[in-house]
Write a structure and sequence with these properties.
Length: 322
């Protein structure tokens, strides 16, 4: 995997790009308890897709700021037993073609059995039905799946284990034949190879696609999600083939990391304001150091795009308003 070389061309210093640059005036907002926020815009409406115990919920609103107060609806409830009956993690709602799809990790109560599953519905507010497991031929542990449309083709990207045991999480990509089927072998496009990706545990997870003009970025979470050092890293698709690891270039420093009142910022999504004038990063973080999974809350704040590159700045502490 190549290190990114576009900084000089963009006229940006690596230190500026990777976290020391503050966004424009306007503060972040805390939207209450939660984790792994997936905000999605389609047809002038905004959606928040989230875990509801052993199932998935969706909220709808006219703007991203209104999603927290919107009434939620359970769009899918897991069966009482079986391979996808427990531990629904990080669901994502996508509108692909004429249907809606939710990609979510689930298991039977044992973490080692976590796999990605896909749900299908005709309406974003449900109901959704289970299509089935979404896996490549290796059928190994998998979470945090998302989709990439590039060159007219669909790809699935997720976080997984190289083997059958825990200890390191990598990012994998595979081709798709339609939105509910993987059609080829997985390829590793990122693994934890910097110290900031290995705090607590060697982890790359939560991959999310962010397109800025003609450029495609993949923003991901690194280090243990239970630590203050959970942070965001970024790849750029600089080659023509997403299935070729050398087509992905990694920023050597985190692009979003802890500050006072915002510990362990990670697992993000992206939306624009209704008028398209402001771009937002939505993420979770902890107000109090050392509170791990129990202290997370969902936050949203604006970010800038400089010379075609997203620049997220620093996460704000709680108590701010947009």
């Amino acid at each position: 995997m190549r290190m990114i070389s576009f900084f000089a061309a963009a006229g940006l210093l690596i230190s500026v790009f990777c976290g020391s640059f503050l966004p424009p005036a306007g503060n972040g907002a805390d939207y209450g308890g939660g984790a792994d926020p997936w905000y999605y815009a389609d047809g002038g409406r905004y959606y928040y897709c989230y875990s509801v115990g052993n199932g998935v919920g969706v909220k709808e609103a006219a703007s991203p700021e209104l999603l927290a107060a919107a009434e939620g609806r359970t769009v899918y409830t897991a069966p009482e037993s079986g391979p996808y009956s427990r531990d629904y993690w990080a669901p994502e709602l996508h509108h692909i073609g004429s249907a809606w799809y939710i990609y979510v990790a689930a298991d039977d109560g044992a973490n080692e059995n976590h796999r990605m599953y896909v749900l299908r519905g005709e309406d974003p507010l449900g109901p959704f039905t289970m299509v089935g497991k979404l896996t490549d031929p290796s059928d190994r542990w998998a979470i945090d799946g998302t989709v990439l449309l590039s060159g007219g083709r669909l790809y699935f990207i997720w976080s997984g284990w190289e083997g059958d045991t825990d200890g390191e999480q990598r990012l994998y990509i595979a081709p798709m034949e339609g939105p509910a089927h993987i059609s080829g072998e997985r390829v590793c496009i990122s693994k934890p190879d910097h110290k900031w990706e290995k705090r607590g545990m060697s982890i790359n997870e939560g991959p999310e696609i962010l397109k800025e003009g003609s450029r495609t970025f993949l923003v991901y979470s690194a280090s243990g999600s239970w630590t203050d050092d959970y942070c965001l890293g970024m790849l750029e698709l600089t080659g023509s083939d997403p299935l070729d690891p050398v087509s992905w270039a990694k920023c050597p420093l985190p692009v979003f990391s802890k500050t006072e009142g915002a510990y362990g910022p990670g697992h993000c999504s992206f939306v624009s304001s209704p008028d398209g004038a402001t771009e937002y990063i939505v993420y979770h973080a902890n107000a109090v150091s050392g509170t791990g999974w129990s202290g997370r809350s969902v936050r949203m704040q604006p970010y800038r795009t400089v010379c075609g590159v997203p620049v997220f700045g620093r996460p704000y502490g709680t108590g701010k308003v947009c």
